[in-house]
Amino acid sequence: MNTEQKAKYYLEKIKSQDKKINAFLHLNPNVLQEAKQIDSKKNKGRLAGKVIAIKSNISVKNLPITCASKTLQDYKGTYDATVIKKIKEEDGLIIGMTNMDEFAAGNSGESSAFNSTKNPIAQNKIPGGSSSGSAAAVAADFCDIALGSDTGGSIRNPASHCGVVGVKPSYGLVSRHGLLDLSMSLDQISPVTKNIDDAVLILDIIKGKDESDTTTFDSKPLRLLPQAKIKIGTLKLKGVNPKIQNLIDNKIKQISTALGFSITEIQIEHIDLAVQTYYPLVYVEFFSATRKYDGRRYGKKIEDACGEEVLRRILGGAEITKAEHKGRYYNKALQIKEIIKEEFASAFKKVDCIMLATVPILPRNLGEISKLSPEEIYAEDALTCPANLAEIPALSLPIGKVDNCPVGLQILCAKGQDEKMLSIAKQIEQL
Ligand code: GLN
pLDDT per residue over 407-423, tens digit each? Predict the structure, then answer.
C-alpha cells in the first residue's frame, strides 16, 4: 500500500467506527493531498508510509489545537511544534488531532469538553487518559502511531488500558517546544504505537537537542541492542488489584526464565509520597501556564470556559502560590521530588531496570469517575507519576488481559537509558 491508499484505509475506518469511540476531535482536511505528495517523492524520509495522529495539545500549523477545552475551541496552530517539524521532514503523514482530558488534566478521557473517548478494546470501559484519543486511535487501528504527552502517566495509563505500547522518554530527550504545557518540569511528548519498533523509529526522529527548549539534551541514535544478564528490580506497592499483580508477577517470572534475567525485590522508600508530591507541582505550574488564557490573545478566559478539574487546579495553584505561604508547599514538593529522584538513582546502581504494573486498577466503567473524589482519581497515578518526578524513562507494554481488559507491564530505567529500556521491552515483546 502506498501512503495515499493507507490514508484512505484509515479514513474509511475512522468514518465508520469513530462515532462510537470518539478518538479524533479533528481530521486533517489536506491529508490525501499530502499523502499524494509523499508518494510522488523520489527520496522518501524514514516515516514515509506512516500515518500519525497528534494529541490536541501539540501545535500543528493550521489544525485546531483545542486541548479538548472550550477555552481554545476556535484556536488553530500558528506554527509546527519541533516534533511536528521533524515528523514532516521525515515524510510522516498527520491524519488528525486526537481527543484528550481537558488540558491533559486527568486519567480517564472523560473530562474532554467535546465528548469522552471510549475504550475500543474493553467494552463500556474508559480508555484511560489523558492521551485518551491517541491510545484509542492506535488500538482501534485508525493510524500507525500517535503522539501524546505524559506528565504523570498520560501516555502509559491509556496505553495500558487500551493494550498498546506507550513510551515516556527521559525528561529532556524530546523537545517540548509547541506543547501546550500542563506542568513544564514534568511534561514529555511521548508516542503510542502498536509495537516497540515503531516507538524506536518515531522517538529517534523526534528526540534531540532543541534551541527552543533548554531542557533538551543531545543523544546518539537509538538502536535496539540485545541485553544480557539484566537485573530486574521489582517494586511491590500497596493498592494494586491482586489479579493485575498476579499477571505482572507471572510475566516477570516468565521473562526471567526465558531471557536469563535475575530478579531482585527493591524499595523506593518515599514512593508512597509520589502522588502528594506530584499534584502540588502540577497545580502551581499549571496555574502559571494558564495565565496566558486571559481571553485577550487566545480564545476565551480559561476560568469562564473550563471544566471542573481544570478550575480546581487553577484555584488550587493560585492558593499554593499565595505570598503568605512563602513557597512552603511548592518548596516541600520540590524537596521530595529530589529525594525520590535520588532514591531511583541509587536503585539503578543495583538493578538495570524496574518492573511493575502501569495502573493499579482495571479501566473503570464509563461514567464511573463522576462519583469519585479527586483523591480517588489521583491515586490511580501512583505507579506512573514517580517516573516523571525522577525524570527517568518509562514505558508500558501490553502483556495480557484481566477480566477482558488489557493490562500493561511498566518498565523503568535510569535517566538517559531510553535505549536500554526499549531494547529490554523488545526482547519481552518477542517472547
Ligand atoms: N493523571 C495525571 C494528572 O491528571 C497525569 C496527567 C498527564 O500525564 N498529563 O495530572
Answer: 999 999 999 999 999 99
- Give dist(CA 105, CA 151) in Å, integer: 9
pLDDT tens across 268-303, in order? 999 999 999 999 999 999 999 999 999 999 899 999
* Number of Cβ atoms within 10 Å of the Cβ of 152: 31
Residue range of the domain that includes 36: 1-431
In angstroms, the CA 412 to CA 394 distance is 4
> The CATH number of the domain where 206 resides is what?
3.90.1300.10
Whether 265 contacts 347, CB under 8 Å = no
Which stretches of the chain drop beneath a pLDDT of 70? none
Q: Is 61 a catalytic residue?
A: no
Q: How far apart are CA 412 and CA 421, in angstroms?
A: 7
Domain total in the chain = 1
Q: Report the 3 state secondary structure along 50-80.
A: CEEEEECCECCECCECCCCCHHHCCCEECCC
Q: What is the pTM of this model?
A: 0.98
Which of the residues 130, 183, 190, 423 is marked catalytic? 130
Ligand 1: list residues with CB < 6 Å: 104-107, 130, 149-154, 182, 282, 381
